[in-house]
Amino acid sequence: MTDFAWPIILIVNAVLVLLVGVLVLWKVHKDKKSGYPIQDERTTKISGKAAIGTYYINLAFMISLGLFIIFGTEFLDLPELDAGWAIIAIMLVSGISYGLLSLYYSRKGDL
User: Fold this and answer.
1) d(CA 99, CA 3)
2) What integer pLDDT is reported at residue 69 of this predicted model?
3) Are 95 and 61 in contact (CB under 8 A)?
4) What is the separation, in whole angstroms, between the first and last Cα of the chain?
5) DSSP states of the chain
6) pLDDT, tens only, 45-99
7) Quick count: other Cβ atoms within 10 Å of Cβ 10?
8) 68: buried, middle or exposed (CB in 10 Å: 19+, 13-18, 0-12)?
9) How far apart are CA 44 and CA 66, in angstroms?
10) What mean pLDDT do residues 28-53 have?
């Protein structure tokens, strides 16, 4: 049963990625057609500040994850963390922190 589920999950994932890509391209095309700029000075500054904040959050998360792995296995006898789960956690922290920081800086009045 598990051998059967993976091809379906991969196909659904590919369809979702294509759908999101088409929607993003459609929105960019619609905004360009109506005269809105794709990126201005404010959105560039928001993206830059969010990216820098995300970098520091990821750096702190990866250092704490590394220390947790080292001290957890050596001193606390915790089981080792698989590399796949660590990568998934780092990707989730990265995406969520960038989204939240972009939202925060876009709602903030002056930058």
Assistant:
1) 34
2) 86
3) no
4) 53
5) -HHHHHHHHHHHHHHHHHHHHHHHHHHHHHHHHTT--S--HHHHHHHHHHHHHHHHHHHHHHHHHHHHHHHHHHTS-PPPPPHHHHHHHHHHHHHHHHHHHHHHHHHSS--
6) 989 999 999 999 999 999 999 888 888 888 888 888 888 888 999 999 999 999 9
7) 10
8) middle
9) 32
10) 85
What does the alpha-carbon distance between residue 35 and residue 7 come to, in Å, rounded to a whole number? 42
How many CA atoms, within 13 angstroms, populate the side-chain half-sphere of residue 110? Answer: 0
Q: Tell me the pLDDT band of 39, cut-offs 50, 70 and 90.
A: confident
The predicted model scores a pTM of 0.68
> From CA 54, how far away is CA 90, in angstroms rounded?
11
Residue 97: other Cβ atoms inside 10 A: 18
The ranges assigned to domains in the chain are: 1-38, 40-111
Residue 55 tokens read as 């970098």
CA angle 67, 57, 99 (to 5 degrees): 140
